[in-house]
Design brief:
Elements lengths: L8 E7 L3 H12 L4 E5 L6 H6 L4 E2 L8 E2 H12 L15 E3 L3 E7 L2 E6 L4 E9 L5 E4 L13 E2 L8 H5 L10 E5 L3 H12 L8 E6 L8 H12 L4 E4 L1 E8 L2 E8 L5 E5 L2 E4 L3 E4 L10 E2 L2 E3 L12 E3 L4 E2 L7 H19 L14 H7 L4
Parallel strand pairs: 1-2, 1-8, 2-5, 8-21, 10-17, 11-12, 11-17, 12-13, 20-22
Antiparallel strand pairs: 3-4, 6-7, 7-8, 9-18, 14-15, 15-16, 19-20
Length: 368
């Protein structure tokens, strides 16, 4: 991770590491441009990894069936010449995860991007490939929870099997853990906590949901129901109405029961597992022409109303727009060529083909 004072210079910065963003990085690199990619999620893959990593996708050209996880892995492999993996650290130095772009400021020669971690990057061109927006965890709708030290949304090492294998004991080990939610994410977290090695387990485990009905895979629900029946997990039904705080720690949630009566649920740690929600966030402050919360673009170049800023994938709109992966890949290709032409106007205009071009073979690291 770059330090807060570092300001890398790059040809293009891609905001969003979903499938379209990863393919955008590949296309930009193929055209000889240096690229950096950033995403608010802690792993690459965007919506495919956040919402349906193991569900099948059938409409990727030439790939009859793959999961979101498999597609992400293939796209990362394809983009590896331009998003190289550091074998010593297991990280890709120019793939910046777990930070949101907060600012986009124009300067003479390009754009400066600032993130939620204080990292900055100066780029000659920017491509927004943020899908429907930045995916952020859904909360309980209680402003008092903001900044609480004993509030979490993710499991230790989630989305990173290597990190999970070597993870330290979670903050709730040996404590009363309350997991809020009734979908797959919440019930999977219950199983994870209940089945963790003894030193990583909570001393007490409570599942909080508004009603005694879940929206999860049948086998996941059956496993959780068995834990509830055995007394290993307590099921509490209620709707959060408020919070009891002690400094910056949650002492208890104030709940409204089905009988209309209020009661408190004391806890040591709160894990909210209500899924992810896309939000445009700071993007609305960047001076881009928006239409129904999407960036309006020119279909010849996928340029936005701001010079040097392009938008591809679900975040953009134009007449006839179809929100499909295939369309996003097409848009990324045209955007890359438009950016390469703008940044290198004296370069030969003819297309190069990966089947025959020695230049492209060199960029891809292809031998012979």
């Amino acid at each position: 991770m770059p330090t807060k004072t570092s300001t890398p210079q790059t040809d293009a910065l891609v905001i969003g590491a979903g499938p379209v963003g990863l393919f955008q990085a590949f296309q930009l690199g193929l055209l000889g441009l240096k690229v950096e990619v950033i995403d608010v999620l802690p792993q690459a893959g965007g919506q495919c990894m956040a919402l349906y990593p193991d569900k099948p996708i059938y409409d990727v050209p030439g790939v009859p069936r793959c999961t979101g996880r498999e597609l992400t892995s293939l796209l990362l492999e394809q983009a590896s010449p331009f998003l190289p993996l550091d074998q010593a650290t297991g990280q890709r130095p120019n793939l910046h995860l777990g930070q949101q772009v907060d600012s986009l400021t124009q300067f003479d020669g390009g754009w400066q991007v600032g993130t939620s971690t204080g990292w900055t990057c100066q780029a000659r061109a920017v491509v927004i490939a943020a899908g429907a927006g930045a995916f952020v965890p859904r909360g309980l709708g209680l402003a008092e929870l903001d900044g609480a030290r004993n509030l979490s949304h993710r499991l230790p090492g989630e989305f990173d099997e290597a990190a999970a294998a070597g993870a330290e004991a979670p903050a709730w080990a040996g404590q009363h853990l309350v997991i809020a939610g009734g979908g797959d994410e919440a019930l999977a977290a219950v199983l994870h906590a209940a089945q963790a090695e003894p030193a990583h387990r909570p001393a007490r485990l409570t599942l909080l949901h508004r009603r005694d009905a879940f929206q999860a895979e049948p086998e996941t629900e059956a496993a959780v129901r068995a834990l509830i029946g055995a007394g290993a997990v307590q099921l509490v039904l209620g709707v959060p109405q408020g919070v009891h705080l002690e400094g910056d720690r949650i002492e208890a949630l104030q709940l409204l029961g089905a009988d209309g009566l209020a009661f408190d649920l004391p806890l040591d740690h709160l894990l909210v597992r209500l899924g992810l929600s896309p939000k445009l966030g700071p993007l609305t402050q960047w001076g881009l022409a928006l239409e129904r919360k999407q960036v309006r673009v020119d279909t010849a170049t996928f340029a936005s109303s701001q010079p040097g800023v392009h938008a591809v994938g679900d975040i953009n709109t134009y007449p006839g727009k179809k929100r499909l992966l295939l369309c996003g890949f097409h848009e990324a290709t045209l955007a890359a060529h438009a950016i390469a032409t703008a940044l290198n106007p004296d370069a030969p205009p003819h297309l190069l083909y990966t089947t025959t071009s020695p230049v492209l073979h060199q960029r891809l690291g292809v031998q012979g």
